[in-house]
Amino acid sequence: MSISRERLIETLETLAGEARAGSPEQWENDTLPAYFEALAAWLRVYEQSFINTGRAVPTDPWEVLAVAVRAATVYE
């Protein structure tokens, strides 16, 4: 299993634990519809998000998804 794929799985497990514990205060998008909308919006612009912050744009789709699922909790 690739490191990026493992990171995605760990991120999903962490998010599930946070959600199970209640609506995390740091999550902007704490309902499923809001979360999915934010996920879609972030994926539309993620390359520019990395460029704007001086980070290399990831090319591994597992890595992109791992970052995306976390970003969607707060992306507006």
If you had to describe this structure to a student in words, what would you say it looks like?
- The chain is an all-alpha fold.
- It has one domain (3-71).
- 66% of the residues lie in helices and 0% in strands.
- The protein has three helices and no strands.
- The chain has helices at residues 3-20, 32-52, 61-71.
- Helix 1 packs parallel to helix 3 and helix 2 crosses helix 3 (61-71).
- It is globular and about 35 Å long.
- The model has no long low-confidence stretch (mean pLDDT 93).
What is the percentage of strand-forming residues?
Answer: under 5%
Radius of gyration: 13 Å
The gross shape turns out to be globular
Question: What is the H-and-E element order?
Answer: HHH
Mean pLDDT: 93
Structural class, by secondary structure, is mainly alpha
Q: Count of DSSP helices? A: 3
Low-confidence stretches: none
Count of distinct structural domains = 1
How many β-strand stretches? Answer: 0
In percent, how helical is the residue content? Answer: 55-70%
Q: Distance between termini? A: 32 Å
Give a concise summary:
The protein is mainly alpha-helical.
Keywords for this structure?
0% strand; mainly alpha; 76 residues; single chain
